[in-house]
Backbone:
């Protein structure tokens, strides 16, 4: 399914609608160039999961940011940025399997940098710029969520 957004707020709203029904343990592989809306989408995912989206920023230098509901029972969101990784092996070195076992949702920016890291049952979201603020966002595996 392909969706079109025309602002950062619309991209966030799509992320919120997408994530509102994500099951615990879901992996969301995000693909797209720099500045195409991946972090805005994850910010929306946090909101859709009942988490504080104001805290969401790109974890480029830390590799992963963890967001939880402060004990409110919400499932956590683990926001990965694979921009600085060279292979899937490096993802496993930072404890990927531990994050998967914690029952949260893993959103992975720059998934193209870790080919073979996922088992094929991930949700895939591809971003393309189609204008200054316009985005074409292709959702695979999560059609029933939006």
Residues:
């Amino acid at each position: 399914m392909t969706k079109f957004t025309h602002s950062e707020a619309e991209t966030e709203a799509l992320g919120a609608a997408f994530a509102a029904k994500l099951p615990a343990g879901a992996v969301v592989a995000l693909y797209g160039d720099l500045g195409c809306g991946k972090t805005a989408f994850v910010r929306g995912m946090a909101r859709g999961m009942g988490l504080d989206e104001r805290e969401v920023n790109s974890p480029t230098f830390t590799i992963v940011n963890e967001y939880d509901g402060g004990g409110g029972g919400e499932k956590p969101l683990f926001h990965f940025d694979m921009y600085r990784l060279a292979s899937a092996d490096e993802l496993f070195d930072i404890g990927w399997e531990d994050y998967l076992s914690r029952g949260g949702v893993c959103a992975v920016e720059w998934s193209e940098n870790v080919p073979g890291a996922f088992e094929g049952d991930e949700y895939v979201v591809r971003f393309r710029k189609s204008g200054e603020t316009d985005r074409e966002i292709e959702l695979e595996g999560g059609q029933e969520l939006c």
In short: The beta strands are 2-5, 27-31, 64-67, 77-81, 105-109, 123-129, 135-140. The longest helix spans residues 8-19. The chain has a mean pLDDT of 86.
